[in-house]
Amino acid sequence: MRFELTEEQRAFGDALERLLSGADTAAVARAWADGDHEPGLKLWARLAEQGVTVLATDASPVEVVIAFEALGRYAVPGPWVESAAYLPIALGREVEGVATVAAPPHAPFALDADVADAVYLAGPNGLTEVTPGDRHGSVDRTRHLFEVAASDPAPEDAAFDLSALATAAQLLGLGERVLADTVAYAKQRRQFGREIGSYQAIKHQLADVRIALDFARPLVHGAAVSLAEPVETAPRAVSAAKVMCGDAAYLAARTGLQVHGAIGYTQEFDLSIWITKIRALVTAWGTPTFHRGRILASLTAQTGG
Amino acid sequence: MDLELSESELAFQAEARAWLAANVPAEPLPSMDTAEGWALHQEWEARLAADRWSVVSWPRDYHGRDASLIEWVIFEEEYYRAGAPGRVSQNGIFLLAPIIFEHGTKDQQDRFLPTMATGEEIWAQCWSEPEAGSDLASLNSTARRDDGRGGWVLNGQKTWSSRATYATWGFGLFRSDPEAARHHGLTYFLFPLDADGVTVRPIAQLDGEAGFAEVFFDDVFVPDADVLGAPGDGWRVAMSTAGNERGLSLRSPGRFCAAADRLVDLYRSSAVEVRGAPAPSLETSDVGKNVVDAWLKAEAYRLYTWGTVTRLADGGEMGAAGSVNKVWWSELDIALHETALDLLGTDAELDSTWLDGYTFALSGPIYAGTNEIQRNIIAERILGLPREPKGAQR
Question: Which Gene3D superfamilies match (chain A) (predicted)?
């Protein structure tokens, strides 16, 4: 029993952290939101060089969640879940370049189909290549969602589970970043003659975010371990991770906004990139209600508790 | 990264499971806070000790098995899964024993640990005072030096002392140097609760049982042999183990995982009706969501604990993470039992093990340092937020 990342896994996470911390990802996200994909695709290529696009086929789900937590922490835009989690499993091979997929009903649109080299639709009989239709805006301005032809539901298979788990890990990273930025702000912003972070009302809210994220992370790692084996309860473990990371990140977003006050409510301030992405990912790849339902069905199907 | 148990850990698990299956009382014991229940709980402690299951992580010389931290967590999971009784000797085993192991003399270890392991002597914690609850360093009970008799004379009052009604020994901090600053000049004492000058007055709790008591000290003599650690060093002694691995042991995840499993069973069986009234439905209530969330949070706690255990085995320290733990399990315990009461409908107010569990859970956010204090610790020590200026809180 060793429920901790190995040295190599830590080193991989640190390498991604170094790459992303120097990449001004907030500017990349702003450009992507405005339809300028060039900085985002350059970053995509650098992350691909680090191996992020081959993890699903060549490494384990543990490496996948390490990478997606980092992508979340830096709010990296693009169809990463689709290209680096879903499609490699569904196709049985890594994706060359950038691809995207719609897997209704939990991922009904093709994310960022306008930059994808290939656009797929997942259904009961597997993948078909499709031509994307109308574009919809998302609460997260970096997510460009494209209609695809209607299809019967895609199966909740290994590709779906890895995608839901990668989204959970992204949410974890997004929540961690919002907490870190909010703590930094609370230490520096002064009201009534002292730092707002010295007020117990602020402290307790931020402590609750710390607690929520601390208990969401082991569910992400636990689900990654159970998908790696894989065990019968793996889908339930994935749903557990998705629900708790969604709740924790959303708490981080709401608290972060509250503590920042009006500045946090502006588009100009970078916090907006993180909190709108959190809101979008809470329902992406399975809503909390869907995942809770999957957990309840699994728990009550067992005999004798 | 894995969650697989080794051969020897699996063997340990199987042995514990088999022993518990053969020995756990078929019926729940009466409350430990009644005279009858107390005696039966002491018998249960003796039965555990006879086969070395009362203190698995202790050395073999003191009735233990030298079990690793991982084995301890495994044992706790099995213990609660088997529906075994709550531990009447918990305060001694989890709060005092680690300090006796670290700071006690060989004589103290030999005198106190074996009888604690067998349940022969049950210990009460005497921390809080009427004016010192969460702000423990503000305590006022005194210890006066008595060189003639080679010891100390205790005066003052402790309160909310868990298990003191029936326990035979107590442990607590007393101010031995009135000139010293708040956290200094405190000394850690061990004393029999039937000593001359000690008066124990039971306090009825919410449920009517005397789970805690006030303890009055009127010139109570304690010999030097019963001072734990150096005189004046009581605060450091008391805190030395507060944050370490044993901090984990106050509430092991096994309890909550077992309760969450029982909650799922209750949900399954109560889906029809209670006394003619329809059970809470998914359409009109949050009860299904709450069942899932209780299970989820217990599962998160289980996995979080495996991570903690791995880090501690690697030489890490618990530190302020103990506060994160405490807020989590105490709030989980209440949410879990509230959900069960929701499922019981109008029967929720009737006596039941769920109701007992609920009343017990209500104390969780209050004792062992209130959750407000824990959140301050998390904010200041983990997040690095500034301390509240002096005087602002009061």
Answer: Acyl-CoA dehydrogenase/oxidase, N-terminal domain, Butyryl-CoA Dehydrogenase, subunit A, domain 3
